[in-house]
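Appendix B. Extra example for self-study. Work through it before the problem class; the solution is given directly after the inputs so you can check yourself.
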Amino acid sequence: MRTSVITPEERKKAFTSPKKAEVIQKQRLNVRYHVEDFDVSDRPRRFLEAFAAILKHSNYRMVLDHFIRMTGRCSRCAVACHVYQATGDEKDIPCYRSGLLLDVYRRHFTLGGMMRGRVSGHGYLTDEKIQEMADSFWNCTACRRCALECPLGLDHGLITHLGRYILSEIGIVPRALVVSTRAQLEGPFKNTSAIPVPALKDTLEFLEDEMLEEKSVKIKFPTDADGSDYVFFAAVSDYLMEAESLMGIAAVFTATGDKWTIGTGYFDGINYGLFYSDRVLEKVVKKVDTETRRLNGKNILIGECGHASRTAKQFIPAYCGGDKALPVLNILEYTHKAWKQGKIKLNPDVVTEKVAYHDPCNYARNRWIVNQPREVLKSFCRNYVEMTPTGEDNVCCGGGGGTVSIDEIRPYRTTVGGKLKADQIRKSGCEILVAPCANCKKQLRELVEDQGLNCRVVGFHDLIYKAIVFDDSLKVPKDDAGKEMK
Amino acid sequence: MSTDSLLEFARGPLFRLSFAVLVLGLIRILFLDLWGILKAYGKTSDKRMPWQLIRSRSFEWVLPVKRMFRNRHIYSIVSFLFHIGLIAVPIFLFAHINLWKQSVGISWPALPYSWALGLALTTIVLGVAMLISRMVLKPIHLLSKGQDYFWLVLLLIPFTTGFICANLNISAGLYQFLMLVHVLAGDLIFLLIPFSKIAHCVLTPLSQVVGTIGWKFPAGADEAISRITYSDAVEPKPEKG
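Solution. Structure tokens for the complete assembly:
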């Protein structure tokens, strides 16, 4: 799918920096996202030191060596990149972006590059190059669509990830992400939204009452239940913003009768480490594992959140026991399985609008969760439409890679990052857009608002909650329901 | 030294040397890549490998029929045919097979003359088209480095000279000279392949494995790296004084 390049007015809107000139001057960094003050002296040297340290304690050298031995610079990835498609700026071609870091690696960490550099006196890392990387790596949404389009099979998303990691080690990282991570790792409430446990419990109780009233069924959010089959981790912001998704999930468990629980010791699935630092990534993943083991849970269950699911699925085995690691699954997989086993009944007369499904990149890119939600949706949404391209080849919502949490770049996200997606949504004519990912939901709602689209963005379990039909045996008589609530 | 003796040298000892460099160089780079992969695999605790995905993604590009027609159709077809010509013509040309037969006594089936002729001409035309597109088309021009132009020109030399010598009625002197250029360019290509981006001819099948293991991060980076770099981004700033 191709899109037209943005107009000069849109470009101005997207690229105007929200930052004060004196901050840019003081930090010697002209990027659109806010950065906490950091040491600006001798930046190239510190960047190289961080790069060297990371290379020593990671697998990136193998990746970089492979890349520099064969990059073809064919520009084919340009057609896959939603950012390049919108800006038409050559510097947004994935291969160019990766080239920024590969050049540094070649010049400073390979024998040939070092010798050539010494002889010619050129190519030493400069402040300007760091500035370009700091801008470029955060223009990318790390959706990894370009990796599918590269004839040589190179994964530019991995290079973006590494670039951001090195930059974070010298203090260049969006403030929004650092502040949340700090709250999660060191704050008193141990989650990115700083929700205290009593507030969480209040919210859950309130939702239970709501569900009793609406469905006349006692649907519970069990907390700290020992020995549960599933310990549940939602993107914590869901407890503030996505009540219906959570209610749908609880309803599914009521219908299946499986034992699940939310741990009050740690209940946040969000892991911004995936977006900027392997060190953060590991710390957060370990917290999820520790909490599940504390509760003697058998499986780690992640809610409607793409990056949270991918980090748990991919890194629990890497950081927490390899073959002996706890199994990880996403709630969509669980619901799909329960539906296939006939444990969930869905009323096909409830959702009559035109419904489309948006694939979160972190679910679909590696063909993990593609058909499961579609099968369920098609079974009860009469008017289901598909966007193209879709599945593993889907188009990013424009807020991937952590950029959705950076509020100050919203104009960029909704004019550049989300342009291709907006065109796709418009073309599909959908009235309800199902996006089972906390990041995608936020970005798509902002996109709908800023681009004037005519659709409503909901979670997958929002629709399940609407359509689920319970056995009469589970129903509480209306009078009793009133008493229960009191 | 006469052109004749130079030609003998170029297709005798020099060819043997460059061919040996090509084979040994490619083995070396393949070994280095595989060694990197194995070392990385050893470092991570996550030993699962999604072989089915790796296989299907690798084959999609080794034989890119499925991918070719999805995006950038013209470029895809041009590039695909160019690669076929580059590989098939030198290996299956009757004259080349004959040389192998005379020197080491091995041979294999040759392309029919008309096929070889058509394929060589196609390769030349497409090569020139790719060269022009690198110079003219905006996105690819910005990405291109010296090496990218150099390789296209270098690859076109033996094709053009070989085509002229085989098909055009030219003087013996010119024939000898062009043949010398043809063989020398071929030797140079062989010598340079293992040290340039053309190494993708053996490394491409490993890309999916590299990507998969690349995302398997070894544990313990935090402790190891925080000792070396100090990052405000991860830890709160220490109080001054």
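Self-check: Chain A touches chain B through 74 residues (CB under 8 Å). If your reasoning did not lead you there, revisit section 3.
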